[in-house]
Amino acid sequence: MGLLFLSLFWICGIYLGEEGFHGEVLTLIVSVLILASLFYLWKAHRRLLIIFSLVLLSLGLLRSALPTPALPAPAISEYNGKKVELQGMILEADKGGRFSSILLKVEGARIDEDWERVEGNIMIYSFNFPLPKIGDEVRVYGKLTEPEPDYLKRRGIHSVTFYPELRILGNKGSPVKRFIFNVRENLNDSLITSLPEPQCSLSQALTLGIRTHVPYSLKEEFRTTGTYHLMAISGLHLSIICGTLLSLLAFLLGRDRPTYLVLTFILIWFYALISGMRPPIMRASIMASMVLLAYHLGRPAGGLGLLSLAAAVMVGVEPELLWDVSFLLSFSAMVGIITLSPYFQRGGEKLVKSAVKEEGLSLSIANQANVSLALSLGSILATFPLIAYYFDIVSPISPVATLFALPAILPIVLTSFGVGITGIFSPFLSQVMGWLAFPFLSYLMVVVKGFSLLPFSSFEVEVGRQNIILAYYVMLFGGMLFWRRLKEP
């Protein structure tokens, strides 16, 4: 618990500093520090915890007070609405059935004669050929517009261009990145040739993190049913996959040896590697690794301290993460799984034992469904106010829709990887694996569409104040602690 408090005080210090509180808070800290030291003088461990927590709060304030370099160049979004020639480096390049989506880190722009240094990333929608590779230096000429999908803006992409002139100048990426890109591109090509639409685009989103080619209508169905987190490879997605892998591998291999933890760790990072290693995926993978470490140490409850330590390190390196949606969702989803899911799981186990009396396949399936539901409920309850605040939508059927959709996620990921890997060596085997992946993808689409047709599937909301979010978490976790105290002998 001490690690948790120290990490949270450090994060709070950075937050207060970023919000502009320095002198007033430091004065308050010194006063509280003196009073707390005198009051807790007779309990050394509490005294030291209070002292170190307040010291870290002060250091967090000082960390945020460090000068940050000013932007040396204007943002690329200033050129929206104009035809412009750009030069930069390719960060992502994903092929679809009809077009490619390319993420370009812009380094310079020219409208007339002179080049100007600019900063920002743009999304390019282009033909599939020629498809540049990660690390390619390119020149692009086209008209910039403001992106309509909100998820691009949340990724920091405020400009797009459609089918521009594109010329590859060379490549300055690392060999490792090129190797990863080639593997990812080969897997993607296999999905495109072995699966029809829209199953192919859904498989791309769930397996490789490529959501650009998913039809808008299908995205809206996921959004209105509160299951969009299953499509996006982020903290919610990875936490559910991590929890499902943990329970499945523990059931298959047993808990006597840490083999199931090691395999889960390897699969999580392999998944992150192939899906693009974007910052949200990396952060979610680090947090999932902290939870696995806690299980390895035999202290699942201690995962909260390790998780907060990982968050503290990330925020210390990059304070802007405190306002990053993917980071907040990743952290809150993991917190929900660690703190809330065990309560649902234990309650579900009692129901399963009363409903299924005999050992066998039925009991195993019921237990797996119970684990899946507990993981879903824990992560959904912990992220509920953030989703309402940032996305202006609440879906009351989200837990039930997630429960029905969740069993298809892991088979989709496994069979889609099977399609991609076999396609590198044998197109025929890739087609066979495609037949195996198709029913799971179709099942997921039917479930989501069916729930989206319900008249009460979602409600538009507007959470205008962060105090409401804070009050929700205080009531949620305060109620959890109160319940735990009631159950203690």
**Alpha-carbon distance between the termini?**
21 Å
SS-based structural class? alpha+beta
What is the general shape? globular
Helix/strand order: HHHEEEEEHEEHHHHHHHHHHHEHHEH
Residues in helix, %:
55-70%
How large a portion of the residues is in β-strands, by DSSP E? Answer: 5-15%
- How large, in whole angstroms, is the Cα Rg? 24 Å
Explained architecture:
The protein is of the alpha+beta class. It has 3 domains: 2-65; 76-173, OB fold (Dihydrolipoamide Acetyltransferase, E2P); 227-394 and 458-487, no CATH class. Helix content is 63%, strand content 12%. The protein is built from 18 helices and 9 strands. The chain has helices at 2-18, 23-39, 44-65, 150-154, 175-194, 199-208, 216-224, 228-231, 235-253, 259-274, 279-296, 303-317, 325-339, 341-355, 361-391, 398-425, 427-452, 466-487, and strands spanning 83-95, 100-110, 115-117, 121-126, 136-143, 157-162, 165-171, 393-394, 459-460. The strands form 2 sheets. Strands 1, 2, 3, 4, 5, 6 and 7 form a 7-stranded mixed sheet that branches. Strands 8-9 form a two-stranded antiparallel sheet. Helix 5 (175-194) packs antiparallel against helix 6 (199-208), helix 11 packs antiparallel against helix 12 (303-317) and helix 15 (361-391) crosses helix 16. The longest helix is centred in the C-terminal third of the chain and has 31 residues, at 361-391.
Ordered list of secondary-structure elements with their pairings:
Layout: H1 2-18, H2 23-39, H3 44-65, E1 83-95, E2 100-110, E3 115-117, E4 121-126, E5 136-143, H4 150-154, E6 157-162, E7 165-171, H5 175-194, H6 199-208, H7 216-224, H8 228-231, H9 235-253, H10 259-274, H11 279-296, H12 303-317, H13 325-339, H14 341-355, H15 361-391, E8 393-394, H16 398-425, H17 427-452, E9 459-460, H18 466-487
Parallel strand pairs: 4-6
Antiparallel strand pairs: 1-2, 1-5, 2-3, 2-4, 5-7, 8-9
